[in-house]
Each structure stands twice: as C-alpha cells, then as structure tokens.
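Example 3.2
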Amino acid sequence: MSSSGQADILHADLDSFYASVEQRDDPTLRGRPVVVGGGVVLAASYEAKAYGVRTAMGGGQARRLCPQVIVVPPRMRAYTEASRAVFEVFRDTTPLVEPVSVDEAFLDVGGLGRVSGTPVQIGTRLRERVRVDVGLPITVGIARTKFLAKVASQEAKPDGLLLVEPDRELAFLHPLPVRRLWGVGAKTADKLRVHGIHTVADVAELSATSLGAMVGPAMGRQLYALAHNIDRRAVATGVRRRSVGAQRALGRAGNTMSASEIDAVVVNLVDRITRRMRAAGRTGRTVVLRLRFDDFGRASRSHTLARATASTEAVLSAARGLMAEATPLIAERGLTLVGFAVSNIDRDGAAQLELPFDAGDPIALDAAVDEVRQRFGTAAVTRGVLLGRDPGLEMPMLPD
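Structure, written as tokens:
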C-alpha cells in the first residue's frame, strides 16, 4: 500500500508482449492477427484475441477460430532484449521497481511529485518512452494499492492508462466480475457462482467466515480483503530470486499424450532446473508442481525434501511423486501446461553430506554431466528417456 495514502503505485504491463515484439520487428504483421508458436500459442496479438485465440491454446484450435492467423516461431533472445530495454525505462522512472515477470512490474512513484510531476504525468511519460525507445505498447494502471493498480491496468488494456482515485476505489472495483480478484480462477469462480456471487460487490457483502465456508478459510480471508481493497504490500525492490523453475505449454496436445510422454516432459524440465541451480551454486528443499488445465484453471502441489539439494535424481523423484498425486485431476480436467520450481533456496549452495562418502554420489555424476555439456553443448549428453523426443519450448515462469 502507498505509504502516503495517495494513488502513486503504477502497474506497468506490456501488451501481448511476444506478439508485439514480432509486429514491431516485421511491419507486414502490424494490424494483423499474429500468433507466436505453432503447436501451442505462446502469445497472441490483440487482432487474434478478437477471434477468441488465447495463450496456451493449441495451434490447431487457434487456426480454426481465426483461419487467417499468421503463425511465427518464437525468438526468445529478441524478447529478452526487449524486456531488458523496458526495465531500463522503469528504473529511469523511479528506483522503486518490483519486477513481476518479463513484461510487467510495479513502480512506486510516491515522493517524486516535485521532480517528475503527478503519477498520471509520470505514467504518460513512461508509456511514451517505451513506445519511442523500445517500440512497444504498454498499459499502466495507477492506484493506492498494488492489487488495484493491477486491476486498473487490466481494465485499461490495450495500450491505455487508468487512474483509480482513492475516493473512487470501491465504486470502480465493486461492479467488476469476481474473476478480477487475485486467486480467483475458473474453479473458484464456479464455487462462488453456485452461491449467486458474480461480482466483487457480491463478495464484499459477505464476511470472511462466510466466504471461507465456500472456498476455504485462507481464500475466504483473501477475497474479503481484496473486495475491500485491503492490500498492505509495499513495492519491494531488490527481491532475490526465491525459486528456480521452468515450465512447458502443451496445449490441447497434452490431452492425448501418453504417461511416458508426459514423464519425458517432467524429466526435461527437472534436468533444466537442477542444471541452472548447480551453475548458480544454489540448493533447495521444496519442489513445486504447477499445472494448467483445459478450462484455464490452475493447480499446484508441493513436497519438501528432508534436506536441501541440487541433485537431479532427488528433485526428479519428488517431481514424479507430485505428478502421480495429480494424475486423477489431470485425467478429469485435461492438461495444457506443466511446470516445476524448486524453492526454499539456499543461496550459498549448502547441502547436507551423507555417509558413506563414495563415488556413487549423484551430485558428482551431475557435475560430470554439466562439465561435458559446458564443453561440447547441451545435446552432447542426454537422458535415455529423452532420446528422439522434441524437448519443446520452455516458457518463462510466471507468477501464480
């Protein structure tokens, strides 16, 4: 929450980021429906979204909805460079920047009035700089709390700016659909709809206890707070990475994949994660599984190991256990995205040594494989289960 009580928190969010980069770099794509990624939609331009095309949708379904869609392959290096340039603009605007993902951030502009003007003036200049310097459209929401600033940016999309004045917060928030509340996905929305709850105003009329009886105590308390715009989180700068993760979109193809094919995806993701951990000298204790389903709902499961590790085998064993636990849910709802993360990170890479200290240490084997890959390339050594399989395109991890 803004310490001044004023609307001086900005949520800046690039519009259809990957697709916008493609339209920026290829003028023939501008104003046309564009999808990044063929097998699975990684991003869709607003022209494509107008036909119902959405992220994580299968490429075939996207083409059926929009036969004239133009499909382009992803260029991750271009997106990384664009993100870096945009964040330079953010940090030139204010030192108080909290990254949320590669294409969005919160900015605290409180106290900059004398040197930079009002939050609206600051947001307007930020949008212009991103447009001119980086060539991309960006939407900015401005409010007193982080939660409401993000809602404002969602309402202002695409390529807009919206200020929610402190004395108009609930008037703005309450008419919105309940899905605008953080944490409310399709499944939670369905639970609320059964009780006749469709808007944020409907939620605000209930107590935290009543909401908890419908969606669980923790979620009930969260919904009650957000429906009254209670959000005391400050913009946090210099946040250290709390997890190392990777995810892969499967699209509708995920529903026809065999158990062995899904396991190969799991192996590939865990291999990438643990390799990065060892390269950064990190160990971790908690393995987190994140799933997305056909209805665009999400679920997560976690398992905390007895000790911190960066061993591929140890993390893979936990990951497979989590997938086995989630199998009934996947069979019921259909799987379109799978991701893993290792949290409870030890930044010093501390790991408990175990007796006996023999040559069978899995970390020693991992280190040898890492060295071979570093010298001769990632494909020089691979796991047998991955031979002949498409490793797929890893998507950036996004917050829940």
